[in-house]
Amino acid sequence: VETDNEDVGKSVSEYFGISGSDPKVLAYTGNDDGRKFIFDGEVTVDKIKAFGEDFLEDKLKPFFKSDPVPETNDGDVKIVVGNNFDEIVLDESKDVLLEIYAPWCGHCQHLEPIYNKLAKHLRSIDSLVIAKMDGTQNEHPRAKSDGFPTLLFFPAGNKSFDPITVETDRTVVAFYKFLKQHASIPFKLQKPTSTPKPEGSDVKESSDAKETQSSSNSDVKDEL
Q: Can you tell which superkingdom this protein's organism belongs to (predicted)?
């Protein structure tokens, strides 16, 4: 691949997550798993031949795109990238809800405040992780999406199995009920101390609830 070729090389380079002006030797399975391999070494006939033979014999380690691992990750919603996916999402001691999103996705932007509110409510539950990953810049074989946003649930103690695709209304209450039903580790929120409501707040809350409830599974994904 000629990475400085605007017609072909640039789009291929972006897909493979490579940069620089030097020619790159790549391999790609081209089937459903879409595994990618990058030759790393001195470009000689013998080494490229060996690379090709190892590829055909399935001896190579696949390459997956990844943003840099965040220096800090102590927000309510944990940031997942390709290189910390195993550490966060595949932690067998945690139930993990993962949103795979795209920065340009309108449905993802609509979901963001709801998702943040869910994470804020559940931040005291040590066994539960609410996380998100930019699907345009990061890859992992266990994080397959058919559009944005895709929501996947990885139950604790069952990370060797395929994750559960979350198909529910996009509301805090619906997500909470889903997690209560599917979490491997039971959890319970502490009931907050009640405080007097300002006059007229019931009307606003009723209006907000109706607006939030209207977000359902119909037409809630942008295409890849």
A: Eukaryota
Helices (H) and strands (E) in the chain, counts: 6, 7
Average pLDDT along the chain? 85
Residue 88, domain member (yes or no): yes
DSSP for 133-202, please give it.
EETTT---TT---SSBSEEEEE-TT-TTSPPEE--S-SSHHHHHHHHHHH-SS---PPPPPP-PPPTTHH
| Residue 2 included in any domain | no
Q: Kindly state whether residue 162 falls inside one of the protein's structural domains.
A: yes
Residue type, 169: D
* pTM passes above 0.70: yes
Residue 207, judged by CB atoms within 10 A of its CB (0-12, 13-18, 19+), counts as exposed
28 has which bridge partners?
Answer: 36
Residue 128 belongs to domain spanning: 78-182
